[in-house]
Amino acid sequence: MALSPEFISAIAPVGVSAIFMGTIAWVTTTWLRVKNGYPLENSWGKPLFPQLSNEAMERVKLIAQENAQLRAELGSVKDRLEVLERIATDPGRRLASEIDALATKALN
Predict the structure, then answer these.
(1) What residues contact residue 41 under an 8 Å CB cut-off, 6+ apart?
(2) pTM to 2 decimals?
(3) End-to-end CA distance of the chain
(4) For each successive 10 residues of the chain (108 residues), what is the average pLDDT?
(5) How many CB atoms lie within 10 A of CB 98?
(6) Cα-to-chain-centroid distance, residue 93
(7) d(CA 87, CA 78)
(8) What is the DSSP letter of 15?
(9) Where do the domains of the chain lie?
């Protein structure tokens, strides 16, 4: 089945537009990756120019330290939340007796 010249002339602008938009999208994506510091990759996902500078290593160390601090803080927040949940769900008599026990322990 041969394609008629009318059909080709009707579909050609759509094809050219699709190729143009695809190229613009690829350029924009690459620009955003470079702007935000992501390494460029080939079609297999391997970095083209790996960045192993001292600045990058220092940045990784700082992020790792911050991560450790945030994990420690999250642990303390979880402990406090557990105490608050226990206070909110326990009956009043038990809470009052625990507070009295702590008060008498502090006085002795």
Answers:
(1) 47, 48
(2) 0.39
(3) 101
(4) 82 92 93 82 71 78 94 96 85 80 80
(5) 13
(6) 45
(7) 14
(8) H
(9) 1-50, 52-108
